[in-house]
Specification:
This protein is an alpha/beta fold. The protein has 18 helices and 23 strands. About 35% of the residues lie in helices and about 20% in strands.
Length: about 550
C-alpha cells in the first residue's frame, strides 16, 4: 500500500456537477498511461445502502458482482475503467456508524468514550486503506458524495484531511469540482461561487490542489488566472469542464485535452508516461459518425428521472456504438398507456424495452406495450420485471390464462406464473432479501440467446425476489415460448424468447450492469442490431 497514491474528489456549490464522471474519466486517463486504478464512493447518507431508496431520491441502484447495492456512480467507474468493483468500493455513513457501534457493543473500545474523532474518522480511513491494501493499485480515487458544507460530509472531509497530514502532498491529492455559472441576462460567467466553495473547504483544513470548474463554454486564460489567484491553486491546475454536446464518453477526451491526467501526475511527482488513448478515440469517432438512427421506447414507471435507468440508457448507447447507430429514447410512462393508445405512443419505435422495477404501478401499461411489440414484430427486450411482464402477457394472450399474474401484484392469482422465491416466503424486512449479485446461467444451443452470447455458460448480475413459476414450464414451451436460459441446477428460469419473432427476449438478470462502451453487452448489441434492421423496413 505504501506506493499507492490517494486522490480525493470533492464537490462544491451544488450537487450533480459530475464528480462521479470526473473521477471515472480520470481513472480512464490514468489507465491509458499504464497505471492501475481503483475507485471508491463515500456517500454521506445514513442508509446502509441505497437498496430501499426511491429511484426518484437517488437514481438507479447499481449492483456489483458480489451483490452489493450501490450508488449509480459505481456504474460510471466500471464503464470508464477496466476495473470490476465490490461492496468495498461503496461506503456510506450508515455502514461506518454501524461498524463502530457494533464494536462499541462488543467492548472493543475498552470503556473509552466513542466519538466522531477519532473513531468514526478512523473507520473511514480504514475503509480506504483496506481497499488500497487488497487491490494494490497505483491509485485509489475516492469520491466524497454530497457538497462541501453539508453537515453529513464533515467526518469524511476530516478523515481525508488527516490522511493528507499523515502522508503528505506527494501521496495524497485533492481535486475539487465546482461551478462557474453563467448569468443568463449578463451573459457573463461568475467565479464567485467557486471562490466561496474553496473558502468553505479551507475552513475545514483542506487546500485543493486541482480545481475542475463546470462551465458552459471553455474558460479563457484570464478567468483561469483569476480563479488561480483567489483560490491559491496553480493556473495550470484550474481545469475547464465544459458541457458536452454528444455523449458522456467524450468527457475523458475533454479532460485529456485540458491535461488533467498530466497535471495530476506532475503534482504527485510521477512520470506521465505515454498515453494510449486509441480505444476511446474509436468510441468517440463511432458516436460522431453514426450511419443509422433508431428510436427505442423505454417503458418504465420512473421514466421522468433519467438517472433511474441510467445503466439501461448507457447500455443502449453501447449497443449503438457496436452497430454504428445513434440511439434516441422515447420515454413512455406505463401508467398512461393502455390498449387504446399503445399504437399511437409506440408508432415511431424501432424497439421496445421494459426495464426492471418493483411494485404494481404501471404493470398493465407495460403488458400492453409488450403485447403490441410481440404482435407487430417490433424488437423487444425485457429486463427483470420486464421479463416477468412478458411472461404474464404471453400467459394471458397465448396460453389463454386470462387471470395470469405475479404474486407480487396479486397474491391470490389463480395462475401465478411469477411467484416469490420459496425460501423467502416469511421474510418481512425489505433490505438485503433478494437474489443479488452474479449467478451462472446455462444457455440452450440454437436459440437467440446463444446466437448473441455465443457461449453456453454465462454469469450475470441479479436484483430481484420473484421468479418464473416452474409448474408452468411445459405449458409455455408447448405454446411456443423457449426457455433458453436456466440456472445450472435447472430450478430457475433466466431467459425466455419467442423464436418466430424477429427479436424477442426477456432476461431475469440485469445485463445493463456489465456492458462498457469499449465492450458492449451482447444482448444490447443484438437488440440495437435488430432495431436497425426493423427501422430499415419501416
Amino acid at each position: 500500500m505504501s506506493k499507492t497514491k490517494f486522490i480525493f474528489v470533492t464537490g462544491g456549490v451544488c450537487s450533480s456537477l459530475g464528480k462521479g464522471v470526473s473521477a471515472a474519466a480520470l481513472g480512464c486517463l490514468l489507465e491509458s498511461r499504464g497505471y492501475t486504478v481503483s475507485l471508491q464512493k463515500m456517500d454521506p447518507y445514513i442508509n446502509i445502502d441505497p437498496g430501499t431508496m426511491s429511484p426518484y431520491q437517488h437514481g438507479e441502484v447499481y449492483v456489483t458482482e458480489d451483490g452489493a447495492e450501490t450508488d449509480l456512480d459505481l456504474g460510471y467507474y466500471e464503464r470508464f475503467t477496466k476495473s470490476k468493483f465490490t461492496r468495498k468500493n461503496s461506503v456510506s455513513t450508515g455502514q461506518i456508524y454501524n461498524t463502530v457501534i457494533q464494536r462499541e457493543r462488543k467492548g472493543d473500545y475498552l470503556g473509552r468514550t466513542v466519538q466522531v474523532v477519532p473513531h468514526i474518522t478512523n473507520e473511514i480511513r480504514n475503509r480506504i486503506y483496506t481497499l488500497a491494501r487488497e487491490n494494490a493499485t497505483d491509485f485509489v480515487i475516492v469520491e466524497i458524495g454530497g457538497t462541501v458544507g453539508d453537515i453529513e460530509s464533515i467526518p469524511f472531509l476530516e478523515a481525508i484531511r488527516q490522511m493528507r497530514y499523515e502522508h503528505g502532498p506527494s501521496q495524497v491529492l485533492f481535486i475539487h469540482v465546482t461551478l462557474v455559472p453563467t448569468i443568463t441576462v449578463a451573459g457573463e460567467a461568475k467565479t464567485k461561487p467557486t471562490q466561496h466553495s474553496v473558502k468553505e473547504l479551507l475552513a475545514l483544513g483542506i487546500q485543493p490542489d486541482i480545481l475542475i470548474c463546470r462551465v458552459n463554454q471553455p474558460m479563457p486564460k484570464e478567468m483561469k488566472g483569476k480563479i488561480s489567484s483567489f483560490c491559491n491553486v496553480k493556473e495550470e491546475n484550474v481545469i475547464s469542464a465544459s458541457d458536452i454536446s454528444t455523449s458522456i464518453y467524450e468527457i475523458p477526451k475533454m479532460y485529456k485535452e485540458e491535461k488533467l491526467d498530466q497535471v495530476v501526475l506532475k503534482t504527485l511527482g510521477l512520470e506521465p508516461g505515454k498515453s494510449n488513448f486509441t480505444e476511446w478515440e474509436k468510441i468517440i469517432k463511432s458516436l460522431q459518425s453514426a450511419k443509422h438512427t433508431v428510436q427505442i421506447a423505454v417503458v418504465g414507471k420512473y421514466i421522468s428521472l433519467h438517472d433511474a435507468y441510467r445503466s439501461v440508457y448507457e447500455s443502449l448507447s453501447h449497443g449503438g456504438i457496436a452497430n454504428e447507430a445513434n440511439v434516441e429514447f422515447i420515454k413512455v410512462d406505463p401508467e398512461k398507456l393502455d390498449k387504446t393508445n399503445v399504437k399511437d405512443v409506440l408508432k415511431s419505435a424501432h424497439g421496445v424495452l421494459v426495464p426492471g422495477g418493483f411494485g404494481d404501478r404501471g404493470i398493465e401499461g407495460k403488458i400492453a406495450a409488450i403485447q403490441y411489440a410481440r404482435t407487430k414484430g417490433i424488437p423487444f427486450f425485457g429486463i427483470c420485471l420486464g421479463m416477468q411482464c412478458a411472461v404474464i402477457e404471453y400467459a394471458r394472450n397465448v396460453l389463454g390464462l386470462k387471470d395470469a399474474n405475479s404474486t407480487e401484484f396479486r397474491p391470490d392469482s389463480p395462475d401465478p406464473v411469477i411467484s416469490l422465491i420459496e425460501e423467502q416466503m416469511d421474510i418481512d424486512q425489505m433490505g438485503g432479501t433478494m437474489r443479488l449479485g452474479s449467478y451462472p446461467c446455462k444457455i440452450k444451443k440454437n436459440t437467440l440467446a446463444f446466437n448473441e452470447y455465443k457461449q453456453e455458460l454465462i454469469y450475470e448480475r441479479h436484483r430481484h425476489r420473484f421468479e418464473f413459476t416452474n409448474k408452468y414450464k411445459q405449458r409455455f414451451e408447448e405454446k411456443g415460448m423457449i426457455l433458453s436460459g436456466i440456472s445450472p441446477d435447472e430450478n430457475l428460469i433466466e431467459i425466455v424468447e419467442i423464436p418466430e419473432h424477429p427479436w424477442f427476449i426477456g432476461v431475469q438478470f440485469h445485463p445493463e450492469f456489465t456492458g462498457k462502451p469499449t465492450k458492449p453487452h451482447p444482448l444490447f448489441a443484438g437488440f440495437i442490431r435488430a432495431a436497425v434492421k426493423f427501422a430499415r423496413k419501416a
